[in-house]
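To close the section, here is one more complete example, presented without commentary so you can practise reading it yourself. The ligand is G3I.
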Amino acid sequence: MKQQFRNVSIASAVVLSVLNLFGTSASAADETLRGAAGDKMLIGTAIMASDLADPGQAALISQQFDCITPGNEMKPDALQNVKGTFTFEKGDAIVAFAQAHDMKVVGHTLVWHNQSPAWLYADESGKPLPRDQALANMKDHITKVVQHYKGKIIGWDVVNEAISDKPAEYLSDTPAHKAIGDDYIVKAFQFAHEADPDAQLYYNDYNDEQPEKLAKCVRLLKELKDAGCRVDAVGIQGHWMMEWPPAQTIDDAIAAYEKLGVKVNVSELDIDVLPRNTTGAEITATEKSGIDSFKSGLPSELAQKQADRYRSFFEVFAKHPGAVARVTFWGTHDGTSWLNDWPVKGRTNHPLLFGRDLKPKPAFDAVIAALGASK
Ligand code: G3I
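Output:
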């Protein structure tokens, strides 16, 4: 059973007193996301190991959230950039922090085409490796990483963003796909399960609530199940915007995944307040320039509009009790969000529940209220 009220560390208590001194509302200071969510779902945040060096952030993370997803520290290039040399230090530091604060850890990610060293699936000239060599590299990476974190991680985003954005293409032709073929995803799930039979296994993607990608994702999940793979949940990343997508699209997608018998992790939630031409989260989709209107802060009417958006999403999650296992925000406060640099570098974005001063925004109160109101 999820612990609703925990011992708040001395550091957290100090932060709370400081917040009170500055007149933060009682609801914001007293309630926590994890407390409000209770047993309904886990509430997580993505962090970087360096965030933990800041006592204010560390206190906020441990006070508010049930679980942590390392934002970069468990990706293939972070753990095995050089073949055979594993660098677990930063990932281990995050796990140690989580354990010290009664938090869970989600592993992200074992197979991805970004932040992955070329040698895994290609030779020095960039040519795809023969299938057996690519499979051996994949198996070795997954086995050693999953075994290292066995018992310390609740589950893994086994494969990330494998489905193509091109309407006529099913899977993207990534280095792993080129070398191994369509069944590289089945193989990754099998290797992960062999390495830790108790770990939950997830497929994670962006825009997989959108009808076209949803259909491909349902196909993939069925193929994984038909091949006998363990699949606990699908990650809908949730890199959403003020006007996109309609809440109904998310509602329909959760219902479709529920029908398939897999849980949903809303795995990377944020609400972008700046205009962009790209939806989703393909990191290479850079835009050269873009409006940067909120450098000195988000106007209160927009902060309220964002709060209403967050509320509407959590109301959708509540319509499917038990279907949404976890909601993880992609960052703890606005200052560390990846959206300050994507798709336009160096903007000032405000996509999360806490501001750069670590104080709760109206969106925080809206999420607390929606969680409290749900059954
Ligand atoms: O580590 C280097 C540092 O040495 C260097 O000084 C600095 C200069 O820019 O770059 C640092 O690397 C950056 C890395 O984050 C660590 O901060 C990379 O440039 C930057 O591209 C990288 O961005 C990450 C991005 O994935 C890359 O794909 C974001 O932090 C991370 O939040 C983001 O997360 C992804 C999920 O894994 C999958 N879904 C989409 C989501 C958002 O892109």
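Once you have examined the tokens, check your reading against these statements. The first helix runs from residue 10 to 21. Residues 71-72, 114-115, 160, 237, 268, 281, 283, 338 surround G3I (CB under 6 Å).
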